[in-house]
Amino acid sequence: MKELLKKIPVPFKGEIIDRKENCKICGEKKGMQIGRVDYWDITSSNLIKCTLCRLVQLDPMLTEEETAKGCLAYYIEESLRVTKESQGKDLVRNFRRGVLFASSLKRKDFHPKEILELGPGSGYFSEGIKFIYPDVNVTVMDVNNEVLAFNKQQHGFATVQSTPEKYISNLENKFDLIVARDILEHVTDVAEVIQHANKYLKANGLFHFITPNGHEDVWKHYLTFNHRNKNSELLINHVNYFDGKGLLDLLARNQFSPVEYYTYNFKTTRRGRGWKVSPKQMAPLSTKKSSDFYIKNEISKVREIHFDKKEVLNKWYIQNKIKFITRLMSWYHHSQFIRLSPELNVGHEIYGLFKKIK
Ligand SMILES: [Zn+2]
């Protein structure tokens, strides 16, 4: 393993160029160009790795309007591609992950009362937390009203329609726990989002996130740029690609100290992400996929999918009377046995649990 880790990840090489916008994290004016992407047919950006803070970002960053348009097109494209059955399975998976996460907090003797989840998706992760802490109050924040309506209807969660980049003073000092799963890679100003999380938390509050390991996530775009010298296709708005050390430093600067910080899932690494140069690892060349095609023509094909929560969670092992079996099954399905330091920049995903220290 150690021998392998000497060779991977393979560091990026590229030209140092002037940025169009300064680095959002540290203000640096130059950076290393490691890719060039087309976000649908909406806009084109460079992928720039900051040599100071190590964060890779789109330059220029997407605007709010561009993000909204691309996200809608992606939502339609995805709804037509993913079946109801697999969506239903995802709900149960997220529920179990919530159960596992909350059980781990309980073992740490942490007892949250107020939780905020940013970008909750189906809300089943927080519902899993509620299974372990039945008295907890959950608030969810999203920009999309359909997501909020779903969360309210399924789980009765309180809702806030906003983006995490906007500061809402009403939320100051209100929460014991903030959850941001698969959110940080999407936000246009991650430093601000982390600052806000700190302010929304009470003293000693916890911040939990998962986010892709940026080195592996951006590898495909790097290869396409470096070996084909062409723009690659970006359909889902990953606008930040995190370096394990860079993300840790950013959190530390915002008064967060790590409780748990690790990467997991190394299937992608074994297959070559982050180090192997092969056509298979490259991102598809951009075709400037038409966002209007989905927004104008395909939207009528999207059917609203209804889920009955009782049916979704109707599993033999999900019962209030036998919570230890629910916990055991959640652990069986989702616990991560191999964990490495994110600073190694290998593995598919980064898991973070951080404590507010000030
Ligand atoms: Zn920077």
Describe this structure in words.
The chain has 358 residues and is α/β, with parallel strands linked by helices. It has helices at 2-7, 64-81, 84-107, 124-132, 145-155, 190-200, 214-228, 244-253, 267-271, 291-298, 309-312, 323-334; strands at 16-18, 30-39, 43-49, 56-59, 114-118, 137-142, 158-161, 175-181, 201-212, 232-234, 240-241, 256-264, 349-356. Strand 8 (175-181), helix 6 and strand 9 (201-212) form a beta-alpha-beta unit. Helix 3 (84-107) packs across helix 12. The site of zinc ion has 8 residues, from loops.
CATH fold assignment of the domain at 64-214 and 247-279 and 291-356:
Rossmann fold
Query: Unreliable runs, pLDDT <50, ≥5 residues?
Result: none
CATH architecture of the domain at 64-214 and 247-279 and 291-356: 3-Layer(aba) Sandwich
The rounded Rg comes to 20 Å
From the spread of the alpha carbons, the general shape counts as globular
Q: What is the H level of CATH, i.e. the homologous superfamily of the domain at 64-214 and 247-279 and 291-356? A: Vaccinia Virus protein VP39
Q: Specify the biggest β-sheet.
A: 7 strands, mixed
Strands in their spatial order, largest beta sheet = 7-6-5-8-9-13-12
Let me know the number of strands: 13
Strand content: 15-25%
Category by helix and strand content: alpha/beta
> Which CATH class of the domain at 64-214 and 247-279 and 291-356 is shown?
Alpha Beta
Query: Tally the helices: what do you get?
Result: 12
Report how far apart the termini are. 38 Å
Mean pLDDT: 96
What share of the residues lie within helices? Answer: 25-40%
Bound molecules: zinc ion
- The run of helices and strands is HEEEEHHEHEHEEHEHEEHEHHHHE
As an assembly, this protein is: single chain
